[in-house]
């Protein structure tokens, strides 16, 4: 009835108002947090599947919220992307990773590259390679110590713009990763054109590996395709010994996941750098 409709509308309006208010509030606190640099990078090891050698570590941002403690990225990255705050936040992440490498370098600690996640909107503004170059120079580190991860879906936008930015990053000597592979719709020809160095298979496919015969066949096909295109294959979200054994038998090059190690603060990953051991 009409009155019900009106009531629903009023109710909806009120909750919408609340949610807009809390969104505006979250946006403001995220803005302040960036200005105050209330963030920390956690690092997750990525290791060679056959030898267990540490190849690289992925930087995963956390917000150190004054009241809530450590806030995971999925609670603020989407808002940062929607509001444009991902630009200054992304710059802060690059800055923190370079500063960390520089500090370790000064202490004579053996280094492996840090891979950084880059959002589509950071990417399409075309300044990211400039910022990477500046931060590398400022930190006095080799560009080969940084890697950049871009999701498969991020590469669906303006092809000319994306290709230009990708090659500018590559020209700096930075390796490029396709992240969350298998969740988007890249064609073979696109993969060949983009000339990415590393293909990270989404964790959904890692969990299917030991669940079904199809899961194994699918993974095997990805490995063959990636190798044919000269790419290194990384399995994400490796959680069990069974998955690990399967990935070894499928010639997947590198692995990352809780089975090896969880993301951890810089201080905790130092022993793994100083003494590159098996997992
Ligand atoms: P991602 O790039 O796919 O990162 C992998 C996520 O999987 C991380 O979650 C990691 O902690 C988690 N993970 C690692 N191993 C396992 C495992 O064995 N099992 C399971 N279930 N999960 C595992 P996290 O740290 O919460 O990050 C979530 C997402 O937030 C990232 O997904 C990435 O898309 C985004 N993100 C993180 N840091 C940044 C950043 O600095 N910039 C941008 N733009 N995005 C970031
Ligand atoms: Ca990633
Ligand atoms: Ca991923
Ligand atoms: Ca993801």
The helix count comes to: 11
Strand content: 15-25%
Q: Strand count, sense and closure of the main sheet?
A: 8 strands, mixed, barrel
List segments where confidence is low: pLDDT < 50 over at least 5 consecutive residues: 1-10
Structure notes:
This protein has eleven helices and ten strands. It has 279 residues and is an alpha/beta fold. It has an eight-stranded mixed β-barrel, surrounded by four helices. A hairpin with a 5-residue loop joins strand 1 (39-48) and strand 2. The radius of gyration is 21 Å and the shape is globular. The N and C termini lie far apart (65 Å). The model is unreliable at 1-10 (pLDDT under 50). Ligand C2E binds next to strand 2, strand 4 and strand 6. Residues 23-277 form the EAL domain. This is Diguanylate cyclase (GGDEF) domain-containing protein.
List the main descriptive attributes of the protein structure presented here:
279 residues; 20% strand; 11 helices; alpha/beta; binds calcium ion; Diguanylate cyclase (GGDEF) domain-containing protein; 50% helix; disordered N terminus; binds ligand C2E
């Amino acid at each position: 009835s009409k009155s019900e409709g009106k009531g629903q509308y009023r109710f909806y309006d009120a909750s919408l108002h609340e949610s807009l208010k809390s969104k505006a509030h979250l946006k403001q606190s995220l803005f302040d947090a960036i200005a105050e640099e209330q963030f920390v990078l956690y690092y997750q090891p990525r290791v060679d599947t056959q030898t267990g050698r540490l190849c690289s570590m992925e930087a995963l941002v956390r917000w150190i919220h004054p009241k809530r403690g450590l806030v995971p990225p999925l609670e603020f990255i989407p808002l940062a992307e929607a509001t444009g705050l991902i630009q200054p936040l992304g710059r802060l992440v690059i800055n923190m990773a370079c500063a960390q490498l520089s500090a370790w370098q000064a202490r004579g600690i053996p280094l492996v590259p840090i891979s950084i996640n880059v959002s589509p909107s950071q990417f399409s503004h075309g300044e990211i390679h400039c910022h990477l170059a500046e931060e590398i120079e400022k930190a006095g580190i080799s560009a080969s110590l940084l890697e950049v991860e871009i999701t498969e879906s991020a590469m669906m936008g303006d092809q000319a713009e994306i290709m230009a930015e990708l090659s500018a990053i590559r020209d700096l000597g930075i390796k490029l990763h396709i992240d969350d592979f298998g969740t988007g719709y890249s064609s073979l020809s696109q993969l060949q054109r983009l000339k990415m160095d590393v293909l990270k298979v989404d964790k959904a496919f890692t969990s299917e590996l030991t669940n079904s015969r199809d899961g194994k066949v699918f993974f095997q096909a990805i490995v063959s395709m990636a190798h044919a295109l000269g790419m290194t294959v990384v399995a994400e979200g490796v959680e069990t010994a069974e998955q690990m054994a399967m990935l070894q038998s499928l010639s997947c090059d590198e692995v990352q996941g809780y089975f090896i190690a969880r993301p951890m603060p810089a201080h905790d990953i130092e022993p793994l750098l100083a003494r590159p051991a098996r997992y």
